[in-house]
Amino acid sequence: GIQVEQSPPDLILQEGANSTLRCNFSDSVNNLQWFHQNPWGQLINLFYIPSGTKQNGRLSATTVATERYSLLYISSSQTTDSGVYFCAVGGFSGGYNKLIFGAGTRLAVHP
Amino acid sequence: DAGVTQSPTHLIKTRGQQVTLRCSPKSGHDTVSWYQQALGQGPQFIFQYYEEEERQRGNFPDRFSGHQFPNYSSELNVNALLLGDSALYLCASSLKRSGYTFGSGTRLTVV
């Protein structure tokens, strides 16, 4: 099955700093999503981005499907950005899609 | 527009008991997937339901079973609970070829 690797595993930032999170995947995919998991366990969808570039406020993401990686950029980080960021990819199997998650990047933003 | 709703939010069960978790998908979504997330790990795919049938299954024993109803809602059943079944159980809904939306999860503790 598809393997998903995220880096770095842990990241500590001062408020206001910028960061880049990376997601590598081992096979062609037709779905890639970035999620933020808050301390209560809720997975918040940040981007649905199987290819291309998207931006939403201080966050942006780029997926280069041909090279099998995706990047999540966080600019001017805030303490509320703390939590775990997951990359999840999906590929069709028998006509049905399922998401495979990476191990996550744990981000702590200090004031 | 209601998102994915799960119930209950928390549950404590004794080893050997059976448990049923419930999920209502986001309006307009027809596919429901279940994930298990152990502490400090990424979500692991359990199975996916579409048109009231299990379409894909992850590496979970037969003690884990599910059902999808005509209104697309779903249940996850776990029999003969083990201490290792303690985890956050996440439900996600989707349409084919679209992104997934996750519920807030059910935190199951087996004692």
Which key terms come to mind for this protein?
A: 111 residues, mainly beta, 6-stranded mixed β-sheet, 5-stranded antiparallel β-sheet, 11 strands, globular, B: 111 residues, 7-stranded mixed β-sheet, 4-stranded antiparallel β-sheet
Low-confidence stretches of chain B: none
Shape of chain B: globular
Assign a percent range to the helix content of chain B: under 10%
Class from secondary-structure proportions of chain A: mainly beta
**What's the overall average pLDDT of chain A, rounded?**
93
Describe the main β-sheet of chain B briefly.
Answer: 7 strands, mixed
Assembly type of the chains comes to: heterodimer
Structural Rg of chain B: 13 Å
Got a strand count of chain B? 11
Give the low-confidence spans of chain A: none
Q: Give the SSE string of chain B.
A: EEEEEEEEEEE
Largest sheet of chain A: 6 strands, mixed
Strand percentage of chain B: over 45%
Helix/strand layout:
The complex is a heterodimer of chains A (111) and B (111).
Chain A: E1 4-7, E2 10-14, E3 19-25, E4 31-37, E5 43-48, E6 52-56, E7 59-64, E8 69-74, E9 83-93, E10 96-101, E11 105-110
Parallel strand pairs in A: 2-11
Antiparallel strand pairs in A: 1-3, 3-8, 4-5, 4-9, 6-7, 7-8, 9-10, 9-11
Chain B: E1 5-7, E2 10-13, E3 19-24, E4 31-37, E5 44-50, E6 53-57, E7 64-68, E8 74-78, E9 87-94, E10 101-102, E11 106-110
Parallel strand pairs in B: 2-11
Antiparallel strand pairs in B: 1-3, 3-8, 4-5, 4-9, 5-6, 7-8, 9-10, 9-11
